[in-house]
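BACKBONE GEOMETRY TOKENS
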Amino acid sequence: MGQVAANMKESPKNMATSIDIGASPEGVQSLALKRANRHGLIAGATGTGKTVTLQVLAEQFAAAGVNVFAADIKGDFSGCASTDTEPPGWAAARAAEINMPITPTAAPVTFWDVYGELGHPVRTTVTEMGPVLMGRVLEATDAQEGALTIAFRLADDWIKAGKNEGLLLDLNDLRALLTYLSENAEDIGKKYGLVTPQSISALQRKVLQLEMDGADRFFGEPAFKLEELLKPREDGKGTIHVLASERLVQSPRLYSAFLLWLMSELWEELPEVGDADKPKLVFFFDEAHLLFRDAPKELVNKVEQVVRLIRSKGVGIYFVTQSPTDIPELILSQLGNRFQHALRAYTPTDQKAVRAAAQSFRANENVDVAKEIQELGVGEALVSTLDEKGAPTPVARTKIRPPNSHVGPILLAERQTMMRANTAGRVYEKAVDRESAHEILSRRAEQLAREEAKEEEREAREKEANKSARSRSTDSRSSGGTTRSRSSGGSRTSPVERQTGRVASGMMNTLVREIMRGILGTPTRRRRR
């Protein structure tokens, strides 16, 4: 916290009060830096120029000493790190048209990547992600979210008790804890609530799928430090932090959960600064509809709370999406700076979006918003920002100025050169795997298995010993009875007794034959003489 607070100090080297966005019939359209933390929206159909508007805003903020964080969905936002010797024809024509000359300049850029391929690795721990966002990443059902909440609560209680088995750093730790939960469900259920084997098994499968998708690289240490986003530069400029998201956005829930986690961490960790002359960080959330698609009400309420309160900590959040209707109304009402590119009204839903967008602007008698919003050309937008007093300016049809940096993706070799030059980012290159839940619970399970094996072996030896003892006792009794029979004088028979026995035996045999003959009806065989 102390380092974060230290990085929030004012830099006196750049005293700009606004940034220029473009030109309209009413004059130059600008954004007051003092009101930039009142958040914003960049909306418009595909191909209407949203990314260029984002790039213009980002490089203008950086030139004014404001740090920027932006997700690069298509890879072309990386161009802000480079410049062109000769601006492209369309850019030169637009600059001449609106009388805003291009000054070829590359912005200071740091590249980040959850997968560690197109930027320095970005990691966080499972504990810091929390059960709500982790449940969203795993696409958990209500029952599975309940099991996940119990697992996190158990881990928290272990940490409070000084037990490191509560450290959930990576997905191996989460898996180990879920296994422990399953094996001890009855005892844990008495204290925390019922946990079904089906929910645990489903979560285990989803964790495995997450690993197979490569997301295990995101969970672990060293964890990303927020100070990286707030570090000031000696030249007074801001740094643009670019999150390579071409691959990340293919896992929409992980993408949205990561950016939500980052916003939440900023809100929880940064100190209050009140109404500063300019924000310390501007956060661009591209493809913002992914954040709210299928999001539970609890999550939407959390985002609304963060958006509403984080401005007092010197952070502005700008959502980039196709239609204003992609953003819940409670959040949309918090976005004071609007940049609306063209919308297409081909369907009833599109027409509803146009009406909603038109009604959100402060009226201008010279602009028919509902009509012109469908007629805007590429690189044009309806713009309304907050002035110095915090009031929205009348909507103006604005031609956005061209960026001073390169438009389009940079070469991979150029990106890698910049990454090697960034010594601060290289700290995150090597993952660290310290002892945590996985190692401790695995060791405990192995020790328990060894003890059970020893107990089974001891019981087997005792059973074998008892069996041998019984066998010796039986042999001893049998041997003793034979000896007594042979040594007893009363057991010998006399000749008369032996003869009597033979006579009795013969009579019995005769009787048996007669009975059998009566039953079976068989003739008596004649004896041969």
In short: DSSP finds 18 helices and twelve strands in the chain. Residues 1-14, 483-492, 514-529 have pLDDT under 50 and may be disordered. The radius of gyration is 41 Å. Residues 76 and 409 are 4 Å apart (CA to CA).
